[in-house]
Recover the amino acids of this structure.
């Protein structure tokens, strides 16, 4: 799943406040909680609910240094966007609102139960709960969900969200309701009555429930209320909150209680604060300052505090007690481009020579992440730890120079070769990784030329553009990936399936297009048993590493801060950050 | 004078057209020279791993495959005659002067600019009053007390003010004055018309921080100008005629010194009105500078051009005002 790019600012350096925030007394305040409460201490929010409470009232303040990709549920891809829209949008399925591993499981939301497959996983049927309403009191109908899915077909108007429906549904050359206003012409979804939604797929796809869970694109939109690209400014609410006025991109907006939301139909959301204020475009260090001062409750992107606040949190025990350090769902791996380095022995030499210890430290050591073994990170269901191919995931492991030289000899380049490594120039950690790779590979005669590019264009126009990779003879680069949904398909398919290679914004910069793996991708979606699918995903993971097309590096950990005034705080592994739909505030 | 103003305004229109053309060229031609294709440009508006069909739809909607002159022609036409924009379900009217429509934010650029101007105006004018008062006063006093401890201390502080970037002094003052010592409330923009007290208290820190930088510069300029002027023959003559020292300083020396100060003030104020980017970013204020930064970061051409033209307009107007003020400050201009 996408995460926001780090906004490049001219500002550098900061002096942070020295507030002596006391560690929260924590625990249940006695008026609620679900028995899974945790005392406020370091990392308590990773596995349990901190400050569990049912107390209503107050203003929840959320902020961010950049902005949402979109507040339209049909047009957002960012993990934090999908987390945030749950405050005002309900979808057929959603993630379970629980701490720990349970949060990655699907839970019916508008639907009464998970979709029922038929026709060999080509047809998926959902039944809506009775009594569901929009903010204006009108009933939510199956046709509104059909329309919501139909509008995602127009990539010119809604281009930022996932394109899975347009790829999977059997809708011919349907162009979307903005070009063809007759919804009957959209054959990908059928609605025989007001409470039944039937998805018709071209090919079998076993993980359709997972797809429906991850994406906001089944949030209902009545055709008469759709304002096209401007719908993002004021989406009609089906959730516990509704917009007060329009959302102002780059500035913010306000959510207030939706009185037509019925909590009896919604086990995954609470409606605790009276208001939720969102401020966009704050200076990065100012976000951390406000969090530590308690004047901001949530840093929306959920990727953790910046360097200055990180040091402060880790060295002040009182502040550290209010911090969590979970695995964030990302794997910062290093793709090796198989077109520019086609000989597998040459790629093996790179992996053998890699100084894993230096890369681990570049990402901040123990607090920054865990040494990776498999390509799939630990939050992916059914993922196996995997065998180390040509490297060792151990602190202190500096690479195997002798084996690297043997591999170079086998590839016909005993004296090494030259290639280019790219990285995001505004990310210090990636720069450090590139420099560590340069030093490590120089030991065996592989000369790296390092080139940095801005985050804003890196994954779209440089490392994400096969033409650019070819022109600049790029051999490897820094990269990170988090799953769309936490299964092997949600993680691995976009980065290893030959079909996923595209001309711009390519998520498979290795250009790994392996016949064996491509066949596995074609077959796996027909398997009904999740355990059987997991076996195939682990096979694919092994093959990617065995072909030395990817260097496993570090599973990212984020350092999150929860102000003492925030209640019901827990890390949600499905989103890779705190769960925003259940937060409350004291005072 | 009226003919002069009309001439300058007509010149300004030509200048703004040149500015918009250059911005257009930089936005499209520089990336093209660096190998960025129209597919890459379209991918900036698309989600993850966009298909060729999705890229084609985006290119068609935004006209990214049209030649740059055609796109520029459309922009100028909208500026003069207005335009309509398709949101998918409806056509949105954008009356002249239409600065364009942001497909990133689904808002008219002119609306965004108008929304941000009061913030930037508040920051720039408040700071300008402070730095003019402080800078000119300190400069005059330093010149009159040349070589004293006051002069050395003032010029030392001025040197620090000029040397320290706003993001350093801004972040430092936020960390200590707002968060640690809690001497001032958190920086926040509240419209003047809504609550004058909160407008004032919310902007004190950006004013002071910005004024610290500029006052330092103006103090050094004023001091140098005063020292030079005080050595002029006409000052000696004024003193010989028996005028009071106060009259000599304020009516003769300071007046002559102010002419170059005004020139620089016009440029500085015009630039700031076009967007105090670092100040707005540092203090998280949503002014024109922040809008420009967001536009650049998101490759939102209509916003970039809209803010650039607004900034250019401010500079032109500020300089026009300065030219008119010359006549007030310097009798030689008035009489010529």
């Amino acid at each position: 799943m996408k995460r926001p790019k780090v906004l490049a600012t001219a500002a550098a350096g900061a002096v942070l406040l020295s507030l002596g925030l006391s560690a929260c007394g924590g625990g249940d305040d006695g008026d609620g909680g679900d028995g899974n409460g945790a005392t406020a201490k370091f990392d308590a929010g990773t596995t349990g609910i901190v400050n569990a409470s049912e107390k209503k009232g107050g203003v929840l303040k959320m902020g961010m240094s950049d902005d949402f990709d979109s507040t339209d549920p049909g047009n957002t891809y960012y993990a934090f966007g999908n987390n945030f829209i749950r405050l005002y949008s309900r979808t057929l399925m959603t993630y379970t609102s629980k701490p720990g591993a349970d949060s990655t499981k699907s839970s019916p939301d508008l639907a009464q139960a998970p979709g029922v497959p038929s026709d060999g996983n080509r047809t998926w049927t959902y039944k809506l709960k009775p009594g569901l309403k929009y903010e204006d009191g009108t009933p939510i109908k199956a046709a509104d969900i059909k329309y919501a899915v139909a509008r995602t077909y127009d990539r010119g108007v809604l281009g930022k969200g996932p394109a899975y429906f347009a790829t999977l549904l059997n809708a011919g050359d349907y162009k979307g309701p903005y070009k063809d206003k007759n919804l009957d012409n959209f054959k990908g979804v059928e609605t025989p009555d007001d409470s039944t939604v039937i998805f018709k797929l071209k090919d079998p796809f076993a993980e359709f429930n997972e797809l429906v869970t991850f994406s906001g694109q089944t949030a209902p939109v009545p055709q008469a209320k759709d304002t096209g690209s401007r719908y993002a400014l004021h989406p009609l609410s089906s959730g516990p909150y509704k917009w007060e006025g329009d959302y102002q991109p780059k500035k913010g907006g306000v959510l207030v209680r939706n009185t037509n939301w019925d909590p009896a139909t919604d086990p995954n959301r609470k409606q605790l604060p009276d208001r939720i204020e969102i401020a966009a475009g704050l200076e990065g260090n100012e976000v951390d300052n406000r969090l530590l001062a308690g004047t901001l409750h949530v840093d929306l992107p959920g990727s953790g505090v910046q360097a200055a606040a990180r040091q402060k949190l880790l060295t002040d025990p009182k502040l550290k007690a209010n911090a969590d350090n979970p695995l964030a769902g990302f794997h910062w791996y290093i793709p090796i481009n198989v077109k520019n380095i086609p000989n597998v022995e040459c790629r093996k030499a790179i992996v053998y020579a890699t100084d894993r210890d230096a890369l681990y430290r570049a990402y901040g050591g123990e607090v920054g992440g865990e040494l990776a073994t498999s390509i799939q990170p630990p939050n992916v269901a059914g993922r196996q730890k995997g065998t180390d191919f040509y490297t060792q995931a151990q602190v202190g492991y500096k690479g195997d120079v002798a084996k690297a030289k043997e591999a170079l000899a086998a590839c016909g380049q005993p004296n090494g070769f030259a290639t280019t490594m790219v990285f995001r120039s505004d990310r210090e950690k990636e720069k450090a990784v590139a420099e560590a790779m340069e030093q490590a590979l120089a030991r065996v005669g592989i000369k790296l030329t390092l080139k940095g590019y801005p985050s804003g264009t890196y994954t779209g126009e440089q490392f994400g553009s096969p033409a650019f990779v070819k022109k600049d003879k790029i051999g490897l680069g820094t990269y990170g990936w988090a799953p769309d949904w936490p299964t092997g398909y949600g993680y691995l398919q976009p980065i290893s399936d030959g079909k996923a290679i595209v001309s711009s914004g390519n998520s498979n910069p290795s250009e790994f297009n392996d016949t064996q793996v491509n066949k596995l991708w074609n077959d796996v979606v027909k398997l009904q048993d999740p355990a059987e699918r997991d076996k195939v995903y682990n096979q694919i993971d092994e093959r990617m590493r065995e072909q030395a097309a990817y260097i496993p590096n570090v599973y990212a950990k984020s350092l999150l801060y929860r102000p003492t005034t925030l209640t019901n705080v827990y890390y949600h592994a499905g989103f890779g950050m705190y769960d925003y739909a259940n937060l409350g505030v004291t005072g | 004078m009226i003919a002069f103003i009309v001439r300058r305004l007509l010149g300004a229109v030509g200048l703004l057209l040149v500015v918009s053309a250059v911005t257009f060229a930089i936005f499209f031609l520089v990336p093209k020279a660096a190998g960025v294709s129209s597919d890459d440009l379209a991918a900036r508006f698309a989600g993850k791993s966009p298909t060729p069909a999705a890229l084609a739809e985006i290119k068609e909607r935004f006209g990214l495959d049209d030649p740059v002159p055609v796109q520029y022609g459309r922009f100028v036409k909208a500026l003069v005659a207005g335009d309509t924009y398709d949101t998918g379900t409806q056509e949105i009217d954008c009356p002249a002067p239409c600065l364009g429509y942001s497909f990133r934010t689904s808002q008219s650029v002119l609306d965004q600019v108008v929304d941000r101007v009061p913030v930037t105006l508040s920051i720039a004018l408040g700071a300008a009053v402070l730095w003019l008062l402080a800078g000119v006063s300190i400069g005059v006093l330093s010149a009159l007390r040349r070589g004293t401890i006051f002069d050395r201390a003032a010029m030392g502080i001025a040197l620090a003010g000029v040397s320290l970037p706003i993001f350093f002094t801004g972040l430092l003052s936020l960390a200590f004055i707002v968060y640690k010592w809690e001497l001032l409330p958190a920086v926040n923009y509240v419209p003047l018309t809504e609550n004058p007290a909160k407008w004032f208290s919310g902007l004190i820190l950006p004013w002071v921080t910005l004024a610290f930088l500029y006052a330092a510069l103006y103090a050094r300029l004023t001091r140098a100008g005063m020292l030079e002027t005080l050595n002029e023959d006409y000052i000696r003559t004024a003193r010989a005629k028996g005028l009071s020292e106060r009259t000599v300083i304020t009516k003769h020396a300071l007046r002559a010194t102010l002419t170059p100060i005004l020139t620089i003030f016009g440029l500085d104020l015009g630039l700031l009105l076009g967007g105090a980017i670092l100040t707005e970013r540092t203090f998280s204020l949503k002014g024109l500078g922040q809008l420009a930064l967001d536009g650049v970061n998101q490759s939102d051409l209509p916003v970039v051009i809209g803010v650039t033209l607004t900034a250019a307009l401010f500079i032109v107007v500020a300089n026009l005002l300065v030219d008119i003020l010359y006549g007030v400050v310097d009798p030689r201009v008035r009489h010529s």
The longest strand of chain B covers residues 83-86. Chain B has two domains: 2-98, 112-329.
